[in-house]
Write a structure and sequence with these properties.
Largest sheet: 4 strands, mixed
Structural class: alpha+beta
Shape: elongated
Radius of gyration: 22 Å
Strand content: 15-25%
Distance between the termini: 39 Å
Number of strands: 4
């Protein structure tokens, strides 16, 4: 299995060592990834990396200096991007960028949680759940995405990172059924 978290941490470490802003580095990596994804043909191996580096460096020279990204972040993103190509890991770039976003959110004290519910919830209850997410995770702020899931029958399911709090009627019925079939 591909270790996208390791690659993401390596990219963030490179940015920090160069004194670059992580968000700028991520933006540069996203732009490079989008551009490379639109190219015809395969994007992997040392030969492809050498050809891409020439194109990228020429493009950087031609671009205006006030493109909005600091040079340290851009140079780090280019080097990292080319390394993923050389190591045949460009196909995993979306996973790497997703991990970078998670790590950046973590550094900024932001936690994202998902709330699935069977019936519409009162706004007061949603606010209380959001507060509990902040307290439980130790984050300074929490973003709560809501999704209606009628198959839960009643109650809710809350996902905070890898933790799941399942207070749905469906899960309670499933546990009851499992208990009854084992007896």
């Amino acid at each position: 299995m591909f270790a996208s978290g390791s690659w993401a941490r390596a990219f963030i470490n490179l940015l920090e060592e160069s004194g670059a802003d992580i968000a700028n580095g991520l933006a540069a990596l996203e732009a490079l990834s989008s551009w490379a994804g639109s190219l015809d043909g395969a994007v992997f191996g040392s030969t492809a990396a050498e050809k891409l580096e020439v194109l990228i460096r020429e493009g950087m020279k031609a671009a205006s200096p006030d493109a909005g990204l600091e040079s340290a972040a851009l140079n780090t993103a280019v080097s990292f991007f080319l390394f993923t190509v050389k190591k045949n890991n460009f196909r995993h770039i979306d996973l790497i960028m997703e991990e970078i976003k998670k790590l950046l959110d973590e550094k900024q004290g932001l936690v994202t949680a998902s709330l699935e519910y069977a019936l519409p919830m009162e706004k007061d209850l949603v606010s209380k759940i959001q507060q509990v997410v902040k307290e439980r995770s130790g984050a300074t702020s929490a973003v709560l995405t809501e999704q209606h899931r009628p198959e839960l029958i009643g109650g809710y399911r809350l996902r905070i990172g890898y933790e799941i709090i399942d207070a749905s009627i469906r899960s309670q019925l499933s546990r009851l059924q499992a208990d009854l079939t084992t007896q």
